[in-house]
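User: Structure tokens for both sequences below?

Assistant:
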Amino acid sequence: MRDVQFEDLGEIAYDKAWAYQESLMKANLDLKADWYKTSAPNDVYNIPTKHHLLFCEHPHVYTLGKSGHMENLLVNDTRLKELNVSFFKTNRGGDITYHGPQQIVGYPILDLEYFETDLGKYMRNLEEVIIRVLAHYNIHAGRLPGSTGVWLDPDIKGKARKICAMGVRCSRWVTLHGFAFNINTDLRYFDYIVPCGITDKSVTSLEKELGRSVNIQEVKDLLIEKFEEVFQCDILVDINKTPNCMQATEQ
């Protein structure tokens, strides 16, 4: 059972959260680099890397993954300004997606050498966390072959819709980026992109599926519970901890 430090960053600009993630990843990568310089080939892996789980909400923003296509952004710079939406090219996998208020964005920074060194299994585990949360609301969710993320009715032609997008980066088995789970999200912002580059499927939210607004803190609590179950870890929630991401990004 590994300890994972949890932080809820609240609403934070995408670039500031990205820089904070990078700083946490770099700290782990530096520890790993030092260990590999001094360790012998038969030494047991024993590096004091730290595991983190960050939650946040972003102001309206579109992000394009490193394998994405600009043509999947359907508006120009002028229209982006009118919509008050930012745009970033990022180093995660995947294509284009939207982040905004009332969407829970989760960023796990884990050293997978203490979990499983299988990136595909890591992605399936992230999906499983969301699937279990949705089951709490009696929503049956699953996976769409050939695509990442969590889907509703993935096997029914014309009905498949994504409720949670995912895109990650991994360096020396340390993860970055994560998932975007639509809770009470304004889905109109997806009309200005081709979400994840998929043209024939739609996007949904927990609010839309339930027909009512959902307490976002309730969902966060469920996410923590299911993350612990799936990843077999202990999530440490320090209610007195002040997020230090702003300090980290200003240095």
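Moving on to the next sequence.
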Amino acid sequence: MDQTIELEILGLSSNHSQSGSFTLVMGEIGGSRRLPIVIGMFEAQAIAIEIEKIIPNRPMTHDLFKSFSSNFNFSIDHILISDMREGVFYAKIVCKNASKSVEIDARPSDAIAIAVRFDAPIFCVSKVMSEAAIEFNEEEEKRDPQKPIKSGKAGTSTPKSTDSLKDFSLDKLNQMLDKAIYDEDYEKAARIRDEINRRN
């Protein structure tokens, strides 16, 4: 197998050039390269709600995958971003149980949404990193206005509308949080939750 590099999720930001899509930024652990991957809204939401530890009203597809695998006693060993052809990334989910290990083809966005639920490591083959990664130094990151917001290990960019949340009482914010979760508007739920946390 090709040499692999372990990655971590650094941030998730809406993609201004492509409506309805997001850029997931992966960082090389112990290195300075960044691997940006454009993903769809549903997968971005699935990754964000797990990172932000928001519990949805009903299981999402990736939660269902986790329940299914747990009930059949197999786990996710790791995720591998295995190839890039014509600008499209390819990934494999490496599953295992007591007796065997199996590789399943997947889109990187789905594979990463599953990885965060299993706390599984994410790797990328060095060939893909050489072709698609961007070298960053700290000075460039400070100057880059597109850089995703970080909170701990990972973060999601939040729109300016957080200012308007300051006008609501704590009781009202809790009601709004319940409604946002019920409506499955997880981006709004994350913003409301952050405002509640700021006051506590």
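User: Anything stand out in the second?

Assistant: Strands lie at 4-14, 21-28, 33-40, 75-85, 88-96, 101-106, 122-125, 134-135.
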